[in-house]
Amino acid sequence: MVDSVDRQLLDILKDNARLSFADLGRKINLSPSAVRERVQKLEEFEVIQKYTLQVDHKKLGNDLEAFILLKVFPGQLKNILKKIKDYPEIEEAHRVTGSQNIHLKVVVKNQLSLQRLLDELMNFSDTNTFLILSKV
Amino acid sequence: MVDSVDRQLLDILKDNARLSFADLGRKINLSPSAVRERVQKLEEFEVIQKYTLQVDHKKLGNDLEAFILLKVFPGQLKNILKKIKDYPEIEEAHRVTGSQNIHLKVVVKNQLSLQRLLDELMNFSDTNTFLILSKV
Amino acid sequence: MVDSVDRQLLDILKDNARLSFADLGRKINLSPSAVRERVQKLEEFEVIQKYTLQVDHKKLGNDLEAFILLKVFPGQLKNILKKIKDYPEIEEAHRVTGSQNIHLKVVVKNQLSLQRLLDELMNFSDTNTFLILSKV
Amino acid sequence: MVDSVDRQLLDILKDNARLSFADLGRKINLSPSAVRERVQKLEEFEVIQKYTLQVDHKKLGNDLEAFILLKVFPGQLKNILKKIKDYPEIEEAHRVTGSQNIHLKVVVKNQLSLQRLLDELMNFSDTNTFLILSKV
Amino acid sequence: MVDSVDRQLLDILKDNARLSFADLGRKINLSPSAVRERVQKLEEFEVIQKYTLQVDHKKLGNDLEAFILLKVFPGQLKNILKKIKDYPEIEEAHRVTGSQNIHLKVVVKNQLSLQRLLDELMNFSDTNTFLILSKV
Amino acid sequence: MVDSVDRQLLDILKDNARLSFADLGRKINLSPSAVRERVQKLEEFEVIQKYTLQVDHKKLGNDLEAFILLKVFPGQLKNILKKIKDYPEIEEAHRVTGSQNIHLKVVVKNQLSLQRLLDELMNFSDTNTFLILSKV
Amino acid sequence: MVDSVDRQLLDILKDNARLSFADLGRKINLSPSAVRERVQKLEEFEVIQKYTLQVDHKKLGNDLEAFILLKVFPGQLKNILKKIKDYPEIEEAHRVTGSQNIHLKVVVKNQLSLQRLLDELMNFSDTNTFLILSKV
Amino acid sequence: MVDSVDRQLLDILKDNARLSFADLGRKINLSPSAVRERVQKLEEFEVIQKYTLQVDHKKLGNDLEAFILLKVFPGQLKNILKKIKDYPEIEEAHRVTGSQNIHLKVVVKNQLSLQRLLDELMNFSDTNTFLILSKV
């Protein structure tokens, strides 16, 4: 279903999701309309799920980024899955295997905001927090 | 430097990074050129780092996604930081605190590709792998 | 009670439990009836507990195999021991020493089926899941 | 490729892999030759990998069964994968994810034989041993 | 706000917080009144939080010093934060990230007083105690 | 050797180590010279080890405080004990029992300074870092 | 209170607690009555707490010896301390620091007796069992 | 081989290994010579391995008792097994299963002697130390 030209397109969009169909076409020797058709097909079949952006959190006043692994307390799984949607600090959340059950990526203003978030999460689960030092 | 209108713009772009300046403007009652100016300023000051996309890895033939925590062997930090760039399976890599040093997000075809990747990583570090079950 | 000829027989059957008494006899220079007598004695004294088979789970549509270690919640031991019988995904279950109490081998269709199983087990115990990558 | 009748056959053989084609046929209302054909197809496509048997290890003089998780030392993966084949005490071996790399099932005569095996394995890896208490 | 002379002053006071303004002035070539002014400003802006002292606990009859990491039980965070104030054995307490939530430094008379303290803390949290062997 | 009046004096000095002998005397109904004598005796017998101060590290430009537990690599104990003296970021260092050997308290400017410190420590030991969120 | 001759006596008794006063005296050049006096004084001051013996548990039909570390559940400390006295399988019990609270040495007939003991202990605490392989 | 009267004798000797044959006989209605015969048989068949004594270590100037679990470094097993014999602080040593390999019981004068012992052991293994708080 997805051929090698599609994969090229996806690779390019991954690096710059705002390129116009014309710019995309120039990079892979296709007409803008041929690109548009392929991209629309990739969107329709939900190969492409979302166009999004990466920001510099420090420049937005959020000094700390962290991964948090949660080991959910007995009977609290449903509650915490609902709650996760309500915290704007939580950027990403995944169910995972291992001795913990949920993996979060969070962005917070400072130590006190991280503590407030942990205080909330501690009602539902044990938490293990890994501060992000830098991107490799 | 970043005002509340900028933050609105960033929120909208986070959900759909391909919206045109006209569409963005309509959503926040600004002219396309005013939007363009703001977006360009956010790019210039590197508040916006990258426009990118999320894909459905299963539909691209990659059945397994996982987080891997690495505890780097003595003297191997520089080597592994270089190597990480070479593995296409590694989507994201961060230096972190905790009892491990590096946090990876990987996307692989199947168990054997995951094993091959782990075989490589085991030359530089202890590995702890958490299979991703679903996105919350 | 079990002599070295019996042990030879058991070794051969372990590799191919469907061999006829005649075939078994040929391999160890015994008459079919002598083999039958020995095998029946081994069954009678329950040295042989079961003839069984190994299948390729992937070919049956089950993409993931895993070991799961359970640390049972206070007061839930009896409940979980009963429940284990009801899950067809659980191939083997043993009580073990260590910081966990029960060791499972499970075969599931995919990540979502594994998640559903873990959701159930999480009512009775902490879970630690090890994905099987390959057989050595 | 594998239909519901095949699955029935596999379930029956899993409980008693030595049943004759006639006995199998009686259980699922098929002629012996139809059963034979199906079983041969399942063998041919390697859905069935092996007919084997379960024995009572205590009755064969082996008092201890255990799972051992190995965290392989840097550079020792290939060596230990080779070595594992040489130890008759090792019943099963799998590559796994988690903070360890290899999962073993072992059957040994007594504490001293377990110690001797661990002494060997300790040349290649950290070991974590879980004594099997009973089958659930 | 804090210049390099202030930092010098802070470094000297950290080694001997009882030095007179005259003595401090002599060490950094400032008049006593200039020192006084700077110190008062550092106190006013709460750069300096407290002048304190280090004692030899063994000489005061307290044989054991330890760090204790607490993993607070569900719903017990507020209770333990209040309780911590009441134990004179607890010298310092911090909220921390990691798999535990609170980090204590305690000074106790002997093993039995440590046990009594742990018995109390065990009502609110799991405890992990590290005996201090010496100061580096 | 240390009587209850001495203990009162130590408690007062712990809260404010810069109080004059006159102020100290007023608080416990002793003449300044009697206080001086007692304090000098406590210094002489090294009950008092040091007068020091607590500062607000954030106000000095150091955004992160953390505890780091080190598990020293084979043969590296002497090296790391020497090195610890050289890092100004390390506020306190203790030898401890537990599965790690050394306990540090560190104060650093930001994530990158913490990473640089960890890069150094990783030459001698495994590190486990707990970010300090607040003082209780 | 305890001099070097007493220590010699204690060392000898530790190796053979049934030696007569005459035999003890011969080994350290003292009269039987002088030895008796010293031993009685050591008993009186409770330096000697108990004369006991070491047996070969296997020869008494107990095949397994193990250490068990218990992490007591909230509110169960008193209950388990009482219960411990009732289990004849528990040879020694100590309160300890670390992430667990109680350290047991147990001697049991076989895997099933160990499982029965663990089933009981699991009502009060998490258990972590280390099988004893041999005495060094 | 060991009958119920022998077991009674062993139980009594475990509580007081210095009782005379006459005293032992009175407790179980046997003549002194019959007791002697039984005891000698138990010694001969090495059911009884050693008569020993329990002392109050604090009264002998040893303030700290601890269990230490060792995870032996690759290639160091033989060395450490030899070394263990040389440390008088080590009261008992066992090979164990679990993630560590050797279990020690040690008695030391104070924190510095414990540190010196750990410094030695750290040449051969990772150490995990549990301070004994009291006997249950």
UniProtKB/TrEMBL annotation, chains A, B, C, D, E, F, G, H:
The keyword Transcription applies. Residues 2-63 form the HTH asnC-type domain. The keyword Lipid metabolism does not apply. Coiled coil: none annotated. Keywords: DNA-binding, Transcription, Transcription regulation. InterPro entries: AsnC-type_HTH_dom (IPR000485), Dimeric_a/b-barrel (IPR011008), Tscrpt_reg_AsnC-like (IPR019888), Tscrpt_reg_AsnC/Lrp_C (IPR019887), WH-like_DNA-bd_sf (IPR036388), WH_DNA-bd_sf (IPR036390). This is Lrp/AsnC family transcriptional regulator. It comes from Postechiella marina.
